[in-house]
Amino acid sequence: MSPEREHTEAAATSEAWPLDDRGIGYGDGLFETVLVRDGKPQLWEAHLARLTWGCRVLGIPLPQRDMLERPLSQAGRGLAVLKLILSRGSGGRGYAPPAAPTPRLRWQLLPFAPAPARWASGVRVRLCRLQLGIQPALAGFKHLNRLENVLARGEWTDADIAEGVLCDSEGRLIEATCMNLFWQRNGHLETPRLDRCGVAGTLRAELLERLPMSEVDAVPDVMASAEAVWIGNSLQGVWPVARLDGAEGEVLNCWPIGAEHRRLQAVAHALLGYPAWLDD
């Protein structure tokens, strides 16, 4: 049995939420989803940095580090995913937040298995009809209001489609519904600029530090004409894109998965403890 399959204990969760919690009522809070390997959180400093950023923007006190790390004591061997949810807590009147918030931290720890077939063979993705609203004040970090992503993910039911690609309301490429976007154009690595909307993933942040990659404004035609395309996050790793469909199902481009795809994948997967790819 592989280490990834050894984590078989039941899911662990913290206590339930009260109905007057502002995270439930208004999405007034933040979350992080963290890959845990043998009890050790992967890219942990990057997750803490993003959570700290979100707390600063929203004005929510950041819990002590030991509180955030306490759930890790319940992680067993193999892979798990830790979801941390931090709300402003209860209180305030209507939308007005309390003057002195008492944050509420909740968490869930679940066994996790990635999708190695998608590492090896690549995936099919589609453009979404939904466009993300532009709100620079909320761009980058993981706030609790993800209804745009929910609506976008509801656009397809075809199991052969792994992800949907989102643009903002001005037509610029931003992200996939739960992953970041990367492509190679004219030999250069690029990823969408995320200063207007979207989530700045922790794996994306690490790749930007390690590789000669540029943040750019781009439209879908750029991705369709790229030499290689990837989607990735800190849980699943990097999936090469083998086929891009339009919102109506038309094929916009296909890519044979080759050495160019493997170079980015190898750097990303080394950060997460995953193989660069698996043989058929």
Q: What do these coordinates show?
A:
Its EC number is 4.1.3.38. There is one protein chain. The chain has 280 residues and is α+β, with helices and mostly antiparallel strands. The chain has 2 domains: 109 residues, D-amino Acid Aminotransferase, Chain A, domain 1 (2-Layer Sandwich); 157 residues, D-amino Acid Aminotransferase, subunit A, domain 2 (D-amino Acid Aminotransferase, Chain A, domain 2), CATH 3.20.10.10. It is built from 8 helices and 14 strands. The radius of gyration is 19 Å and the shape is globular.
Shape: globular
Architecture (CATH level 2) name of the largest domain: Alpha-Beta Barrel
The chain-level structural class is: alpha+beta
N- to C-terminal distance: 19 Å
Assign the CATH topology of the largest domain: D-amino Acid Aminotransferase, Chain A, domain 2
> Number of DSSP strands?
14
Low-confidence stretches: 1-10
**Proportion of strand residues:** 25-35%
